[in-house]
Amino acid sequence: MDAVAHVHSHDPIPSRWPIITALGVGLIPVGLVSWSHGWPQGLAVLLLGFAIMIFGAGSWWGELLHDRFFGRDAVDAERRLKTAMFFFIASEAAIFCSFFAALIYARVHSPTWPPEGMPHFEILVPAVNTFILLFSSVTLHLGHSALERNRRDGVIASILMTISLGAIFLCGQAYEYGFLNGSAFNIRSGIFGSTFFMLTGFHGLHVLVGLIFLNVVYGAVLRGQITPQQHFPFKASSWYWHFVDVVWIFVFTIVYIL
């Protein structure tokens, strides 16, 4: 009886990575607020927070996938983490809805939109970014199809293409931020600046998290740990990536078109 209970144990493995990841996540808003209020070292704190978060999250997920999905608790872990992934995406959707609600509320109660003195956005870069992100969903779906047909080379190529497209998207967003900052538009530019940068920045952070997730899955594919019979980590990363893409469609429509 004890042996059976041990095999199906639900206790999480001891890990230092959650607290390290939390430290990085905590440094990000500290650095962002400090930088936006003119403290020069705030940018360094912000970048340090991102670096710690990326390293911690990647190591944590890699450890989780190795010990749960590719160990003796693989079947039970998939069932539990499938439910956890659903609630995680639902909670993230609720946060995005709050940002959209804030933006729509500000627009409805503003005499003019954008407010006077605020720049009108150039739509070219966001439109190209939209195409890039939507195409990345296609490449990831092709990777899943290749996995079901046990075509390992196709899976690797699709994941690498998706990661590259996601990185290009972030570069495009960074370029747009630099352009807007040159026109004196930033997160301190009233309710318009606050809602714009919080919404697009929060989405960009999710793209970054998605890239970390995909890199972890890519490593698992290279090690032969992702197979047509056992590939929930790939499936979960696809769900998350498609969710991020759908959110961007709403961001692009509400922020840049309407």
How do the strands and helices of this protein lay out in sequence?
Elements: H1 2-7, H2 17-36, H3 41-69, H4 74-108, H5 124-148, H6 152-182, H7 190-222, H8 232-257
Helix pairs in contact: 2-3, 3-7, 4-7, 4-8, 5-6, 5-8, 6-7, 7-8
Mean pLDDT: 83
Structural class by sheet pairing and helices: mainly alpha
Beta-strand residue percentage: under 5%
End-to-end Cα distance, whole Å, is 62 Å
Report the sheet with the most strands, covering strand number, pairing sense and barrel closure. Answer: none
How many β strands by DSSP? 0
List low-confidence stretches: 1-10
Q: Write out the CATH superfamily name of the largest domain.
A: Cytochrome c oxidase, subunit III, four-helix bundle
What is the highest CATH level, the class of the largest domain?
Mainly Alpha
Oligomer: single chain
Total of helices: 8
Helices and strands, in order, run as HHHHHHHH
What is the CATH topology assignment of the largest domain? Four Helix Bundle (Hemerythrin (Met), subunit A)
Key phrases:
single chain, 258 residues, mainly alpha, Four Helix Bundle (Hemerythrin (Met), subunit A), 2 domains, 8 helices, 79% helix, 0% strand
